[in-house]
Amino acid sequence: MQNKGLIKLFAILFGLVSIYQLSFTFFANKVEDSAKEYAKANVPDNNGRALAKYERKYLDSVANKEIVNLGFAKYSYNDIKKSQMNLGLDLKGGINAILQVSVKDILVGLSNNSKNPVFLEALAKADEAQKNSQSDYLDLFFNQFESISKGGIKLSDPTIFGTKALRDKIDFNKTNEQVKSTLQEEINTSINTAFEVLRSRIDKFGVVQPNIQRIGTSGRIQVELPGAKDIERVQNLLQSTAELQFWEVYTNAEVQNFFFAANAKVAELLKDDSTTEQVKDSAKADNIDDLLGESADSTKVESQKNLFTYLFPNIAQSQQQMSSLVAQARVQDTAKVNSLLKNKEVRALLPNNLKYVKFLWDYKAQPSADGTAEIIGLYAIKSNRADKAPIDGDVIADAKQDYDQLSKPVVSMLMNGEGTKKWAKMTSENVGKFVAVVLDDYVYTAPVVNGAITGGSTQISGGSMTVNEAQDIATVLKAGKLPAPARIIEAEVVGPSLGQESINASMWSFALAILLVLGWMVVYYGKSGLYANIALVVNILFIFGWLAAFGAVLTLPGIAGIILTIGMSVDANVIIFERIKEALNEGKGLGTSVEEGFSFKGALSAIIDANITTFLTGVILYVFGTGPIKGFAYTLMLGIGTSLFTAIFITRLFIDGAAARGTNLTFNTNLSKNWFKNIAVEFLQKRKIAYIVSGFFITVGLVSILTVGLKQGVDFKGGRSYVVRFDQTMKSNEVAATLKDAFGTAPEVKTYGSDNQLKITTVYKIDEEGTEVDEVVQNTLYNGLKPYLGNTSYEDFKPGFEKAGNGIMSYMKVDPTIADDIKQAALWAVLGSLIIVFLYILLRFRKMAYSIGAVVAVFHDVLVVLGVFSLLYKFMPFDMEIGQSFIAAILTVVGYSLNDTVVIFDRIREFTEGKNSVTASLVNKALCSTLGRTINTSLTTLLVMLAIFFFGGDSIKGFMFALIIGVVVGTYSSLFVATPIMFDVSKKEDKK
Length: 992
Fold this sequence. Notes:
By secondary structure, the protein is an alpha+beta fold. Helix content is 58%, strand content 13%.
């Protein structure tokens, strides 16, 4: 092997970088474990909400403390948490939601609530058409409008979109197509606005590594918040309408005397509480105190603490120092400041002219001067008894980022008629003073008013405003045009308790799977197996290092993907070792045999072909999948790349080194040396029996599918699914009967994992829209289950936070409209993978017979797995639903089956090279020569999957069961379906 030095250098550097990246996760986990320990010490009753509060308090207190010191670099907790491994919902808990911004409501808003009958009828028919269509709503509306109007009225009509607000963009002469183009731009702007508003809200929520992205042009936005515990707050945050307001503000000079008075009062309040809190805290563990430091624990309030301990007032000592910014605080202290400023005794100090003041924070923080903390500004808003803003955001007609005469970024803003009047009044009354632009109770800008603005057109500028900031503010101003809140149409919620259990289960299953594979390789291949094991461990290090370095999300299916690639990594080494053994058995020397085994004509061709086919299925999964399925596909593709490198190069380095030292490598042990030798099975002569057996199982499966059917998951049929844990053993049929009274129809209730846990699936109110419907359904579920919940309150029953007893552990909701889209995407994923694989095999083997044999075998495997699921889903003690996870399993089965088949086909091609036709004896010889590899790989892969199945989480059992059946059937079909079909088709082609 050439370039050994370069390969060694690359492997060492990649390994060191991987360890470095993973170290952040190690140190972050240590801090978070300490936070949990601190929380448990302060919350004796294990109340989930209180535990989360104390965890957050601890983490805030150490946010900017030095955790790691490498000499050349120092890292605080805030630094390391940004680089720690991203865990998905199923491992960390949290919420994953898809929100739909209503394009219909946007169109209604753009038309100024038009009452035109043609317009309203087109909307109604577009609503109906959308139920059974994946087309964009605008296209459906446009087609319906064209059909109904028949040219009698245009979209540019003044009663529809030819309004004053749109007069600069739509005039009466524009054609419907031109108006449609303009409407698409406006819709995109509205969706972009919704996206930016949601992103701003999510940034305020404080979860680590949130993910938000638009889904095409459909108006859908996907939001993933791993680690979020206050699920109710998240849902309200995501679905509430953006509230844009314009307020007058007090200057720092006007409120500074109040701050001085409040500071003295707060000192008294904190002094009164300090003795009690110190006594309470003195009983806590010393190691927690040491880690926090003497001043870090905000519950240990010393007597000298006051308001200015947490809040830094912006004092105005001259006219030039007057500002709308009244104070600043560290981000972690904002909750404390809010609490102190809302205190009744503190509010009582406000003079009459400040009676209704409300304090709002800046929308984003800035690093402190020394870089040790994030500082955020505070503003004093001139509110009133009704807390009604002088101007609301619905008066904004347009806003955009622009430049002033000095080429500095500004925001140009245009108001409608009503807004023009209000803005003229507000600016004329506040010349030389400040006004604030507020969105969702955060201040985005609070500029000085230089003069009355009467034309409805104005600019917002700031001395240090950047282009990006100007664009953000323009987006916020346009948020006032958002006609409706975004509605959650698909949601998956996993509680932190279930997430932690999944981590524990996955770690056990992962460790057991690794030990089984490592042990088997040593038993079968001896010292060579040990070298392969070292390469395998390096492969795992590379995978996790890559995931940590590039911020990929690790999910439970992702762990399954990693373990599957371990099986494939073993497969590559098995193929290589078997080829080396063959060369050694032919009397060739060790060096020559190793060279031959690692050559393209030896094992490399089969390895590359097999891995490419599996990689292609991973690509299809990644393109069509969502959430955890993407995670599975990502780790599968990543694992294929790293396993190829480690199996081909790392293993080779060790074997070449052993050969150079004169080590006697036999690639077997005394126990395994005679296994799979001198096999002479006439596989093709048994193909008719195999066809009958396969035909029987497929027929039985199809009959079951057509009569009994398949159990579709919520993500394919729509509905809501809750996993509820109780503190007693539950009978599913009894609970179903009880809930029938609450829901009107009996939901589907099944034991989920342990006998005190149920999965409850219902379609109750799933067709109803509105942000309050989810809460109604959840409340109905609680009332229906009340006889079994003891003293559990509704607050404790809700999903989120740690669960000490009864409650919802996880929750999933899918609207029927998006369920159809998911189902169609899954169908395209399966068909797409089959087409791509068919073309790839045709390209590589240059004969139609090989492609037909491979695709028929894949269809065979898919039908058998579907048949098994149809026959057994009513009897198995775990979920066997047909959903996105099942499709991922099917595509993995496709990849695995093709992997097996391609290795066999590769050997057949080698044996028939230069010959006129494929003969039965050559095919049988090829099958026999690869049988050891086939059984060995299938066995190690099965060991891995069985370990995950028995010791992994409940949520992945159905997924793993499909893979186990697929591996068994795929191994069988490679030998008895794909190869015989290829042989029969080849014979027919030869005759022609």
